[in-house]
Design a protein that fits this description.
about 120 residues; SH3 type barrels; 10 strands
Length: about 120
């Protein structure tokens, strides 16, 4: 029986900031901001543009490897180590869900909206 992957509040194309790990002075990524490229809910990780860059040695002749050499690419980072950036002041914030009841064509429909906990603005 397969287990259901947990729900994640961070989505693709969100602007996030690294909130834990090694500081930039020590060669880490703490404090850096980047856009989420991909989300992996099954192991609670996100791929962030320009964050957690690794060097990968690729052998020549491998499919997709081309001529071989050293590639620099991003590695996934755990979702607990990043926070969404508030669109109003550019600082990290938590996410809340606001539910509203909208009346369309005589039917009431519940709409869920992601909201910044810091400023109350929609994300």
């Amino acid at each position: 029986m397969a287990t259901k992957s947990p729900k994640m509040k961070i989505k693709k194309n969100d602007l996030v900031q690294v909130i834990s790990g090694r500081s930039q002075q020590n060669g880490g990524d703490k404090g850096k901001q980047g856009k989420v490229i991909a989300v992996f809910p099954e192991n609670q990780r996100v791929l962030v543009e320009g964050i957690n860059r690794i060097t990968k040695h690729v052998r020549a002749g491998q499919p997709g490897g081309g001529s071989g050499g050293i590639e620099v690419t991003e590695a996934p980072i755990h979702v607990s180590n990043v926070a969404v950036v508030d669109p109003e002041d550019g600082k990290p914030t938590r996410i809340r869900i606001r539910t509203e009841t909208v009346d369309r064509d005589g039917r009431s429909k519940t709409v869920r909206t992601r909201v910044s906990a810091r400023s109350g603005k929609d994300l």
